Amino acid sequence: MATFPYTLIACPCTSFTSPSDTNASSIEDPDDDTTFNPHHVRANFSLYPYEHLLYCDDCHQIRCPRCWTEEIMNWFCPSCLFEVPSSVVKSDGNRCARNCYNCPMCTSPLSINGLEPSAKDHLAPADPNQPAGPFFLSCPYCDWSSLDVGIQFSKANKITDQLVRMRRQGNRSPSPSRTRSTRTSLAPTAELSSAEPDSTPPSQPSQDRFATLTRFYKDQMADSSGAGASGYSDNSTYNSPGNLARIMSIYGGLSHAALKKAREKPRPMREALDSTEGLELLSQPANAESTALEKLRTEGYEATTTLSQRVSHPYNHRVRFNDHLWPIATLLRTRRSKRCRTCRHIIARPEPKMGSTRYKIRLLAQNNIPRLALRLLSPSASSAPVSAFALTPAALQAQHNTEYEKLRPGLPVQFLLTLTNPLFDPVRVTLATPATTPGNVASRVTVLCPTFPIGAASDMWDPDAISSGTAKDQSSEDRQPEAGKVWERGRNWTTVVVEVVPGRLDKKAGSTTEKTNSDESNGSDDEVLEIPVFVRVEWEAEVTAEDAAATGAAKGTKESREIAFWSVLGAGKIAEP
């Protein structure tokens, strides 16, 4: 729960009507607006602070994360800030293919260091700025290095190519074209089971094994069905002779020979037999389990890998212990722009530079709608002296929160609601609140001045216009709120008084109400006093060139605009009677 008081904005894209309510409302009045219930079980999915909302200039509406779509502008590496084309990401994956790697233990960036310089380099180094090889990757945070896994590099660049070459060492086997001619028929199962365990080649990486299996199954489909019989082929196009013959046979009728050939039983497809075709046996050395158990007894459970370490990279999927973890290539990041789902208008676009964190376009809602702020008119603790130990910021904040967490039921409490206009045009605001707050605890709410103007956010302002319409100029202790009068007014802000009578918490009745209205209210925050306020803003703005081309109005003329939204004001907590 946020610190009291707080203000949340409800996005208009969310509706809390159930199917039964929708049918009933369509019969009675389809345009009837219902009061927003902040205690609804779905209210948490539609309430956002000002900082999380954007604004669409074309629709003139608030946009939440469900109201916009994200488009990937580019891919880049967060370590080297190198931009990667989308075609390379589709073919090579979403990891940096340069020299950027992270530690498998703590995920910190790894640095490339030289192992030890040679004697000739001590005497007359060719390039003093470059370290001498061999090289290794080391973590400056947890002191992990690739030497723990037995990995050394001959060059300081092209680390990815060297790791792939090391990974594929020992996995070489006869080419598929050499062994394909010797397996024209289905091999018996007994021949596979009688193979020696020692003759099983080492396991291939998952990417290579998947590519081998894909190639094998494509060959099997081509051999079993044939391009001439079925009309399909791996690389055939729609204008190939096989596909044209199949289409003509469909629309022109099949001959007796074609029907007889179609009824022929296709040759069964066989499975992969060895590693050249993508097969990987689950057989392990006889002492593999005993070795793992012995290592677990000596080094303990801390030496084993965690689930997050195993899923961090395909090379570490089957690793059991930490001393077998390979370095992890850095994941690429994306820079994304946001578009409105309704009109496809761009509402946020970052700058194209990789090192920049600024936005080229960013339409924030807090720069286009009035900002609401709530505070107590006369806090009960304001007259009490503040002790010396309560002068720290944490103690003052705790004392401030205590004032809002002891609202007594049945006693009127007056709040000051301040609205700030961020626009450069004067606006007229209309506030509407329900007579009683929705939920299990009904509190009475009254806005003393529901309609009032707010000045523009400019440097010029009229003090005489501001003083008119406000309460009488008296001291803060003697001033009394008046109906139809604003409490205070500034250049681009106005303060009005909101009177609240908190409802009573009834535990016995509250439990029954919670059961009966479980689909409408969660019942867990009944003591929290949240006031739904409907805000409607009207103003006149000049017609821009884009609006003039779309609507046909003359450029520079004034047009009326308005925006309406629900807001929730967290006033405090109701104390138990």
TrEMBL record:
| UniProt cross-references to InterPro entries, sorted A to Z | DCTN4
- Organism annotation: Aureobasidium subglaciale (strain EXF-2481) (Aureobasidium pullulans var. subglaciale)
> What Pfam families would the database entry show?
Dynactin_p62 (PF05502)
Where is composition skewed (Polar residues) in this entry? 510-521
Task: Report whether Methyltransferase shows up as a keyword of the record.
Answer: no
Name used for this protein in its record: Dynactin subunit 4
- Chain intervals with Basic and acidic residues compositional bias: 474-488
Subunit field text? Subunit of dynactin, a multiprotein complex part of a tripartite complex with dynein and a adapter, such as BICDL1, BICD2 or HOOK3. The dynactin complex is built around ACTR1A/ACTB filament and consists of an actin-related filament composed of a shoulder domain, a pointed end and a barbed end. Its length is defined by its flexible shoulder domain. The soulder is composed of 2 DCTN1 subunits, 4 DCTN2 and 2 DCTN3. The 4 DCNT2 (via N-terminus) bind the ACTR1A filament and act as molecular rulers to determine the length. The pointed end is important for binding dynein-dynactin cargo adapters.
Where in the cell? Cytoplasm, Cytoskeleton, Microtubule organizing center, Centrosome; Cytoplasm, Cytoskeleton, Stress fiber; Cytoplasm, Myofibril
Question: In which family does this protein belong, per the annotation?
Answer: Belongs to the dynactin subunit 4 family.
